[in-house]
Amino acid sequence: MMNAAVDSDTRNAALADLRTFIKLAGERGELEIIRGADPYLEIGALYELSLRDRYPRTLLFDEILGYPAGYRVVVNVRFSRIFVGELSLEALKAYRKRGKWEGQPIAPAIVPSGPICSNVVTGKGINIRAFPAPHWHKEDGGNYIGTECLVITKDPDSDWVNVGTYRVQVQDERTLSVFIEDGKHGDLIRKKFWSRGEACPMVVVVGQAPVLGNVAGTASKYGVSELASAGGLIGRPIDVVLGEITKLPIPAAAEIAFEGFMPPLDEASRIEGPFAEWPGYYASTAHPDAVLDVRAIYHRNDPIITGQPPAKPTFPGRQPSLGGMAAIWDALEAAGLPGITGVWKPDGGGVRFVNIISVKQMYDGHAKSVGLVAAGAGPSAYLGRITIIVDEDIDITDQAEVMWALATRWDPKSQTDIIDGGWSGEIDPMISPEKRAAGDITSSRIIIYAVRPYRWKDEFPKVNAFDPDYLAEVERKWQGRLPFLTDPRRNGATRPS
Known about the structure:
The chain is an alpha+beta fold. The protein is built from 14 helices and 23 strands. The strands form 5 sheets. Strands 5, 6, 7, 8, 9, 10, 11, 14 and 17 form a 9-stranded antiparallel sheet that branches. Strand 9 (about 165-170) and strand 10 form a beta hairpin.
């Protein structure tokens, strides 16, 4: 059954429940159960080896050395074919059609109990180290239990509950450190509490429905509830229980949740990091960071931790994020810009650094407006180093096509904007030691307009290529008679149309 298409009902069921997803992945032949792996480096190495495939298998680690059987770690959830399908512009368009969750949120439903309440540990019984937290890479500063997790906070001035994904390091049996960069929604909320001299209530969930991992890791508008967004994606409310300590909502079907308070940084801190980050470097050094004082642990029987540690973005399995690309496309349309025909993130650029946008130019300055908005829009502003605008005839999923547009439609002097002071982050390897010391975490960015100049685009030299419809007609005529038309090894044979 491997690689068979997944109907929408089955996909939604897998999105809504981690264990349903794992069962389905097993039935489809896309699950590998690995027993006896060492949480020190070996789990991380096996994970990295899996990224050699464009669609890496879901790896479920059980009987992990030093931990009871049934205390498991699962990786490669978000990259499964169950959710991604074929990586193409058509897949992105389909994602947007079923993923307009910000416009159709469904508020979470508070329920009295759920699987997460199977075991509730407080007081002297709290022991974070009872759960497997891999030491993913050799130079990491410790064990990280949160790499694809939920960090739940609530704005003290409103009803807004924010859910983000930030890395979480185990410090001791009762303490976690949570690395949240300046400007992230979780950072803005915790600083509101700190400005009042209060500790920030917080819940960290380290095993959850795939839909929650998707929305937590995708940029949302300020004030938008990711729990409601997730409900919109699956067409029903996310069931939540209220934490006994903080009254924050905890997904009722989650696997493990740590509940507590994060005091101001000047009151409590631990050394956090370093950590192998997704740009492919150790850019943020070990530093004092805020900690979560865990007051309660909730967990299911035989809990499963979802993991997705960073790796160099050059691996085939480090796929572009459909959710991230959809968010940029939505932001451009929300800004009133017409004619957007595609958004893509090329291999090697990671989830943030490079964004390619195709547009059908409709007026003078159209491409410029798209580039400027894309460089500053919420989903693309953070670490958005390079923005490339191309015409609608360019296949933005094909890096050779994009390079051709750069080579032949871009004048570096007149079709380039360079902007200083853009929103960057501690994980940016290009932030110099001097800027870090001064607290300046900003960077420049470039917008490249590799488009036919609008004022004379009709006079621009014609493209030397056959009409695609005619090529398809000729291919149908000769199919089966010429081996090069059917050889799967031929260049471009599997390229999406």
